Protein 1
Amino acid sequence: MTAIPLSPFDGQLLTLLQREFPLVPTPFAILAARMEVDEAEVLERTQQLKRDGVIRQISAIFDSRRLGYQSTLVAFQVPEERLDAVADQVSAHPGVSHNYARDHVYNLWFTLTLPPGQAMDVNIGALARKADVALYLNLPVVRLFKIGVQFDLAGESSESGGKAPVAKEASPLADSQPTFSDSDRAVVRELQEDIELVPCPFAPMARCLGMSEEALLVKARGFLASGVMRRYGAVLRHRRVGFAANGMVCWVVPENRIEEVGRLAATYSKVSHCYQRLPRPPDWPYTLFTMIHGRTQAEVEAVTENIAAASGICDYVILYSIREYKKERVKYF
């Protein structure tokens, strides 16, 4: 999928759609006022960007942990001649949201998310046996420093990998199991759906739920304020906006420096995800994971080198995404 030319107007609009989509009855009118144009122009351009495949969807992005789900990153070591077939088997699992081939001996990487009551090790083991995979890694998150792919298309950040504000969440993951009413669950299900690109997009969602538009929006804003919802906004196809390189950079960081280095890496604008994960020595000694998106591999490597120089951590590996097998949301509840 190739990039398409974006005007400055497109760049500003896409940045706002990702970062500042208003949870109000007429969100496109609010965005239009921000951009000092008519609502009709914002809607028309958003519809065209959706048709062009730039916008994947506009919806809620929830924190799976706060919904009571568990997730992990899994790596399979697969013979090259069987990679596509195994990837198809893995992608068929409803809990697999992202599934990529990467340039490493562990060459198939996927995220697995499970509802409460399901055993992660059992599911991973079953997938491995079904695919006849003997060697695999289960790499659960220990600490989250940053999450969220939001591309700056309005020219606000340095193309050389400048810094952005650190994510507000940088803490160990909690084990508490939240509780949600049937009404809460119904709202979560509906908010995951792609909105209609119309002046009042939340009205039809509220009708589906049998509740008022304002009641739906109050619930949505509450989820956002509590952290159950990470954000509400557009998800873009990164290659369509020119970010062709996707590098997962894995670092060997001593335990006593994880907090410091994780917070440092999270400040870089091209770092979309930053986690501490359990290492699996001797095959996998890496403890800090950073996902870096760039227009080229050289750009990814420049950001990586900047982080290495700033942190003094020089033991790392970059795993580039070479094939995308699956990228879609897990449907909660």
Protein 2
Amino acid sequence: MHPPAEFRTSEIMTSSLRDRIIGPLAAALLALSTAPALAEDAAQIGRALAAASMRDWPVAEAEAARSGPMALDLVLWQRLRAGQGTWPEYRDFAARHGDWPGLALFYKRGDAVLRADLPPAEVIGWFGARRPDTLNGALALIGALQATDPAAAKAEIARFWTEQALNKAEADIFVAAYGADIAGLHDARLARLLDLGEWQAAQVALPLATPAGQALGKARLALQSGQGGVDKLILSLPEAQQQDAGLALDRFRWRVWAKMPELARDLMLERSTSPEALRDPAAWAGKRADYARLALRQGDWALAEKLAAGHFMLPGSDEFIDLEWLAGYAALRGGAPDRALARFKALEAGVTSPISVSRALYWQGRALEAQGHAARAEAAYRRAADYKSAWYGQLAGEKLGQPLDFATLGGQRAGGSLPEWRGSSLRENPVWQAGVWLIAAGEPDQGQRFLLHLAETATPEDIGRMARMMLDMRLPWHALRLAKAAAAKGAVYPDAYFPLTGLETDDLGLPPELVMAIARRESEFNHTVSSHAGALGLMQVMPDTARSMARKIGEPFDQRRLTRDAAYNARLGAAYLAGLRERFGPSVALVAAGYNAGPGRSARWLGEFGDLRGEVDPVDWVEMIPFDETRNYVMRVAEALPVYRARIQGRPVPLVPTWDLTGGGVKPAPEALRIQLARSARPLPGPRALAYFAAGGVLAEVLGPVPAVPLDQAAADPAAAGGAITPTRPARAGASATR
């Protein structure tokens, strides 16, 4: 209802209300289980984690010891990440569990306890392919390399000095140790720090730079920190330095901040000749898309294409996907379908998910139609229609007159029916085991963290197995997140990607597929979640809105129930949805946009872009929504509608995404649709069902016969951490074209 919901996940040991109240959780099943030993193991882990949350390590370890090695490692993982460990503990844990999640912090803490007297091979082995980002870590690695590979040591000295932000005390230590090796690198270091927006660290580095480096650095620092006299500093530079790519990036950011969009756009066009001229293409990409979309809305197709096409982003990134599509769309609208087709083919080659592949193929069809190639256009639409779990695949299917059949929805690539997890070798993976034990101990969100981490490197089939296990454990929100991870790799598992929860059987006075589509997007069906903006529960209702809706439908308002009672939250969210339908009619585009960004914006966009209920192309209308989050929200809600319509009714349904977008052109509120509901295949279980699952031992199947993993088994594969340049927000100064 408010943009966008960012889920708050507690630290591993937090005894959160969310985890205590979820009925179908593993811990609840274990509490009812006829396997006392299994239940006690989980209870002991839960007590150990609770003690660890209070940093009571002796009690945590004593409780964990009563359970076994996995419990001890979970507590140790938390203690080491808290910086409470010795060097041997860090070294040995990395050898056993180098593939666990959260290791960036783990390694940072471990680097802090490295000692100068450690054997060089031990230090080099600790880092592996990872590079240090702390002074102590760098000193340790450089010392080890100097004893074994002096050339590698010199390279690491140069890398660390030019890339890392240090305070004055740290910089002084490094200069004292390696001054001769870094004498010629101070200008490069200053430029790098300024590129990162680390202008305070850059001030420390400034005196070490050459006179020319200092002059350029002072101009950049003035821009970043909002100092006066910037124009004079820039104009005093030699022409070559005035064209410096880093200075251009600072000038661009300053113009954006100063609300000078035309000058910022002109500088963007001037610099969009190569990745080097932009210094960091990603730093320009967000505003590049904004300016291109603004040009589209103003009907300036040539400018929009020029802005979008000069992005220089690598295939696969979100920015590449958006900008490559924008360049193709602008070319198509500007009467150049040949250039558009080339862009849409490049987009297809650079993506893997059904959402993006179907988008590329659908627009290839549109470009081919514009060229007069009807047969080739139909072939492109047929390929796009293979991805009917995605909005553009559904639009292609509509063009071809195809229905949506839930039974065949996962036919793309490696998806389809969820594979069985029982008997799988996946169960021998220590990351899988840790995740399952966390779920059993009442920490489902942290358990999911382990499973999602495992999904990053797992095959789509193994991700499907984890998703099926989550459905078996009555955790549809975790199943959905895993299904999204599989979809990103090109495999759709419909049962988990569009799960049923029992909500679809409630009579809320609205089409059930609409309620399911909104809840899926808002909370992923997690009725206990809160957003940073304060939205609560299944439908992510703001407390003030919930209070108003409770009054409207005659229910008492209780804010605590918003994250405890899914049905209560659904009634209040549905009441708000009903109000949007009364205002905008059944158009899912207007209703979903209003739910996400506010009804005022839906009304404003009707005025700005035209009325999609009869005046303009509804697909174009959705693509012109200026907010990335809302545009994506509308597409994801719209694509879930026919899927849930088919799943709830238990039969294939006509594909009518255009009707859904426009509401059939209806502007007043229609009567509520009457749909005969099929009973959910997976309703939320009642007490009898819970008792059945406990007695049947679903959790015992998950946890019971898992082979023990030897403590000396090592699986080290740490991932390097990355970061993005973040624009600074200096104090505002006078506007200047020089800047």
Protein 3
Amino acid sequence: MISFFKKDFLNELWLDFEKLLNIKNDEYDFNIMPISGLLVSNLSKNDFFKNLQSNLEVILNDGEGSTDTKVQIIKDSEDMNWIMLSDDQSFDLLSSIYTTINAINSHESIKNVIGVALKFSINFNDLTEKCFLIYRMDLQSFYPFAPTSHNVGDRNEEMEKFLFDFLKSKKINLENNKRNWLGLWGIPI
């Protein structure tokens, strides 16, 4: 069977999460916001996906190493859903995203995960801007996304370039080809 995912993509993702958690920069005041989302397709009809919210709540909130991460499933379209995760603790939020992806992977449904949208704030041109860092599962890399409205096509490319350069300097695994920086307008955050 052919796999489109590197064997250790989860390890590489966690290393990037650790780098994000370790960014300390007073000049740009980089902060991970307390909510993020995973865009997933409904193609998998296994038992894990049939009871996705309750399964994730058990995995994330019960037992040793549990978090207080809240889980909500939001329907995006006929065949797409958002798994919204919220937690005031940045480490717990990123850990819960990682655990969610790992759980989906262990139930042989990783191809259902389209991407992850991490929301954060950063000081840009003396204004605090809220934007996203998108992780595309098919590319296994991040890219910045700074929508200026919910209208498709409205984005702040100057901000995205700034973010790209800033995160590249922090050694985050970023997608270099801008043609692959797909917009995700209407993220329910």
